[in-house]
Amino acid sequence: MAALVGSSLGTKCPLEDVPLCDGPRRVILDLDGGGDDAWALVMLLSNEEKYNICVQAVTCSHGNARVSDVLVNVLRILASLDRLDVPVYGGASEPLITPGPTRNASHYFWGSNGFGDVEFESSFSVNTLESLHAVESMNDLFQMYPNKIALLAVGPLTNLALLYKMYPETRDKIAGLYLLGGNRHGVGNTALAAEFNFFRDPEAAHIVLNNSPMIVHVFPWETVLLQTFTTKWRFETFRQSTNPAVQVLNQVENVVYAQEEIWTPCDMYVAAIFLNGSILQTVKSYRAEVELTGTVTRGMMAILHHVKDVNQHNVAVIDEIDAAEVERMLVALNDFK
């Protein structure tokens, strides 16, 4: 479902397939509509000119909320930034194998609608959106701009797994793949030993890691825990922000983080490393598999340390980043233009 106002004719990405040296780096953001997804979107849109990138499209998946709510959350952020030119597509509404895991194992941290169930003054309808599915839009775009569009996937990987299975020829046309998900030491953020995005659709994560022709850059949960900010810092830093998208997120996170001491804008980190590769400090390649049958480990990303042959490696795990530079990039979001 693509917003009529956000057709590909309206996006700031050039219509013609220009050489990378002459045009911006194109990116698709595949998300599941929580507040941290919104921070990733804001980080990208606020830095298109500075880092010479353009957001080709936003594709939406189940995860933090129902797809219909995810679409509304994305439109709310885009509207706040006057960026409804960015195409938005609705995608998978459930994991590949149903029924999916219950929320008893991973509560609704972002509320039932992904934005803290805040009652905003304005509302958005998804009834005026086109019917093109996110997976079809991904295929069209990767075919149109082969090896020119990177994909940042910061929700469950259902859309990407479906793309790989429906249009396998497209796999070789993705310029780069960056994930927020998985765990490299067995530390999860669900009731089981798995990170939420992989936990929500383990089969999809398995398909992606085993079928991507390129090394997949993975920002795992344990690295998020090393880079956290205090909620005190978060609220003091953005309380007086003039960025309208940050003002929206202030309303959301005043509710979600009211009783929390640590702020974890997980998905934002993937946007930051895509924009600014210099913040990467420790990245190691491994062979990784996703556990599908374990009683308490289903969805866990298992690192096969005994596989030393780099030709068999499928992930580049990001262990350390320049936290001070990420902080600078976050603070800069207050300078809305």
UniProtKB/TrEMBL annotation:
InterPro entries: Inosine/uridine_hydrolase_dom, IUN_hydrolase, Ribo_hydro-like. Signal peptide: none annotated. One of its GO terms (molecular function) is hydrolase activity, hydrolyzing N-glycosyl compounds. Pfam families: IU_nuc_hydro (PF01156). Residues 27-326 form the Inosine/uridine-preferring nucleoside hydrolase domain. Transmembrane segments: none annotated. Belongs to the IUNH family. This is Inosine/uridine-preferring nucleoside hydrolase domain-containing protein.
